Amino acid sequence: MYSAPVLPGETCVPPGGQGHHAGGGWIVGHVTGTAGAGGAGGAGGDAVPPLRPREFAAAVLRGQGQVTFLPSVAAGGVFCLALTAAGWEYGLYGLAGTAVGTGAARLLGADRDRVSLGLEGFNACLTALGLAAVLGPRHFSTALLALAGCGVVTVVTAAAGHLLGPLGLPSLTLPFCLTASATAAAAPGFRRIWHQGETLAAPPRPATGPTGLGPDDLARGFLSGFAEIFLAPQWHVGALLLLGLLVASRRAAAVACLGNAAGMATAWALGAPAAGIADGTAGYNAVLVALALCGGFLPARAATLAYALVGAAVATAAGPAVAALLAPSGGPVFTWPFVLTTLVFLAAATSFPRLGAHRRGAGPAVG
Amino acid sequence: MYSAPVLPGETCVPPGGQGHHAGGGWIVGHVTGTAGAGGAGGAGGDAVPPLRPREFAAAVLRGQGQVTFLPSVAAGGVFCLALTAAGWEYGLYGLAGTAVGTGAARLLGADRDRVSLGLEGFNACLTALGLAAVLGPRHFSTALLALAGCGVVTVVTAAAGHLLGPLGLPSLTLPFCLTASATAAAAPGFRRIWHQGETLAAPPRPATGPTGLGPDDLARGFLSGFAEIFLAPQWHVGALLLLGLLVASRRAAAVACLGNAAGMATAWALGAPAAGIADGTAGYNAVLVALALCGGFLPARAATLAYALVGAAVATAAGPAVAALLAPSGGPVFTWPFVLTTLVFLAAATSFPRLGAHRRGAGPAVG
Amino acid sequence: MYSAPVLPGETCVPPGGQGHHAGGGWIVGHVTGTAGAGGAGGAGGDAVPPLRPREFAAAVLRGQGQVTFLPSVAAGGVFCLALTAAGWEYGLYGLAGTAVGTGAARLLGADRDRVSLGLEGFNACLTALGLAAVLGPRHFSTALLALAGCGVVTVVTAAAGHLLGPLGLPSLTLPFCLTASATAAAAPGFRRIWHQGETLAAPPRPATGPTGLGPDDLARGFLSGFAEIFLAPQWHVGALLLLGLLVASRRAAAVACLGNAAGMATAWALGAPAAGIADGTAGYNAVLVALALCGGFLPARAATLAYALVGAAVATAAGPAVAALLAPSGGPVFTWPFVLTTLVFLAAATSFPRLGAHRRGAGPAVG
């Protein structure tokens, strides 16, 4: 539960391997830091003083790691390298976005521990990457707009927390999805930021093309599934991202791999075109759902793993539904299937005691 | 209030005729059973033991009855016959769907009384029928997907309860609408489950055709309005469903008839094409709204009957709005107009003391 | 905080100029009247007695003023004149709509002080105007439908208050947007109310046309920005509306002008076509956001002014996004960008202590 809104009296169950807890200390340090003093960065005592540069840098890297719910400096560093491997612009957008979001949250007076944990950075990271992908990273207008978007997503993050917090639900990447989808839908209405002529709007089309998968498709799809979490299509970027997961937590990496496989299997069984599996679009939501439901916001155990894999399958099936809903308006799918599926499965979890889901303090589960 | 989330301390006001309360006993038995021991099925003592086969069968039939908010074994049985009259596949989908949903909820550890009352079955029933109607009932892929959908809708039901329960609102058929709409929108993206070539997506079209109604149109439309609740278009199926309502509660049947008439009158007054009234699409949401607002979740009295008929008219007018919103993505309307209208009217009811709506315990009605 | 849901124990901070508080007394009288006895109208003692004709008339004019969050009889009167300048039908629709909404709320037993403050009138005013604009004001069917819509929007207002109140959020013009958008989307499906042949549905189009602005465009756009709040395009109507704001509160007028300028500057910077700036569509949401965030629902001070201007810019950028989402279904934008942006910024405000936003009693801001 490393990135969940840690409620008083809850036991934290960080899913990282035990080795990290004992050895590195930075995960546990900052999670428990929410309830009390500072973390591994050395800041003790009161929460009022601003972040020192080194702390800020750590918060930014953790913010990159939080895209996969891992407040890990090391994972964030590897993710940064992976993005740079997709293109130096993307590495820059991701890093600058995380920094701007983290800084904006701190300036606005957001909770210091949330900032330290990187919880104010990952939505900004994705927003910057999303705008770069949709509007083109090399336009100056895109850079300016991404800057503004990283500030706005900080406000949206606070709003999402205000609305979902009382329900015991995390905001996940909902702020990113809202901000990036709104910007992508609005962009063709503004001539100085839209440089592509036509809009992306089109009626949804039925799937075409072969459904048979070769080993090459499987391998590429599996690795690209990790890359698409950061909106990158390249398989070698995905390989680096998987490495980052492994560095932070072997258990999280295993869960992510299982989620990815569940997503790909679901897509194949339902008859998704092979091209859509091989490019990673069938797997990235499944990876995120699995990470969130097994170890992220529910304890990691057998029952939640099964629940997480069902969720991964549902998110994969829901992918084309989101695409069909947004296609006529010209909005990309982003991580909407992950967000919606995970919120439903987390909200439902308190009703099913056999799942072993912890019940939140005031969780009202009638209905 | 037979299917409302029964809050502690509330007085239950089941809308069934008094004869049922005194004679049959199964409605009251199981509603009050929520607060204490088992029900008419004979299960006393602790709530832990699993459902016995006969209890499970009763829960499944009640689940079919709950589509019209009636936890009635007899109504469920008649509804089952009516679906079979629409086609044996539909009878099978409806019954199997209710059974799978009821069983899945029990396996996941959902509240025993909710399961006994059929509250975990009716959304699954409709989901199975909805997928059969959209994807074609005779494909093996449809049967498998309906099976999976009935499991998923159980999770969605728990999530909806978690979100709406604290607001004092029931989840109605929202879980069915969400699951079936998502599946219908996603289906054309998967080749093994979509066998129709093109998608259903199309821009909304203005109404055409004559608006004058003959007696034959009126009679067919009235009866088909009941059938469309279960997504069936045949008037004789509707006649059987009305019989089922009568068997369970004469008052509920009368309210349903008035709601149907209010819906048809609204559609005619606004100028809906006669064809859309004669096929029942103008009435089914109105029937459900009337049942929910007069006797279902508000006490049955003159003021709520008037309120319910206004709601029935609003749901009928809202029908083409939902159709226009979903048409570009290829989603059928299902019972969205009923769900949205009823939630608005129930949420509003606590603010209007003159309506005689009971105020829920912690119902915060500021704003 | 003149139109906010006044929670017990909160200090009211009406943003009108001090002159109004000392001199006129009607603003403060009726705001504080929420907690105790009647207001300036003279009704003392218990809240049970009905509104006298003169009180009702004042409530209706205040309802017109509440479109800009000003419970001012004088502003409402000027707004009424402004609408009549746009066309006598619009003056009539606006006034009759406010009266019907106010009366319907009183009949249904809504809170007397809410009714006196005009809080039950402004959404009905806009609904009547919105239906007149979309369906044509001179059709008898439009007048009847507007009448019905003003009753329905009262129910939707109560529902929105029930859902948003516990979160400490006002319902703004959300009830109007929901009701008018649903009616506009549904209308082409009914032949007796739709007299225009084709639907308004169309795929979103990229912006075209020059982006350079002349002084004439700027002046017209600035004034029309006020007019578009009431769905009128004429600059002279906007001039009268600005006069109404000035009459009610010089501070509110100044904030509105700054918001308008921020919106127009944002639209120009992003490259909106000059035609879309000159007709006021770039400014009206920005005006409303600024009024709501600086003085309306947050205290008026430097920090909230900056926050409000950021919100005004965001709402302006979000405008084409809403348009793109609704275009395929044929729904006009109405004030959706204002509503969505303001709800997000208000929900976020409690998390940022440096903004100086007051924290609501039980505002849970985790997440």
UniProtKB/TrEMBL annotation, chains A, B, C:
It is found in: Cell membrane. The chain crosses the membrane at residues 69-88, 117-136, 143-164, 222-245, 252-270, 282-298, 305-327, 333-352. Keywords: Cell membrane, Membrane, Transmembrane, Transmembrane helix. GO terms for cellular component: plasma membrane. It holds the Pfam family UT. The keyword Cell membrane applies. One of its GO terms (molecular function) is urea transmembrane transporter activity. InterPro entries: Ammonium/urea_transptr (IPR029020), Urea_transporter (IPR004937). The keyword Transferase does not apply. It is a multi-pass membrane protein. It comes from the Bacteria. Its main location: membrane. PANTHER family: UREA TRANSPORTER. Belongs to the urea transporter family. This is Urea transporter. The lineage of its organism: Bacteria, Bacillati, Actinomycetota, Actinomycetes, Kitasatosporales.
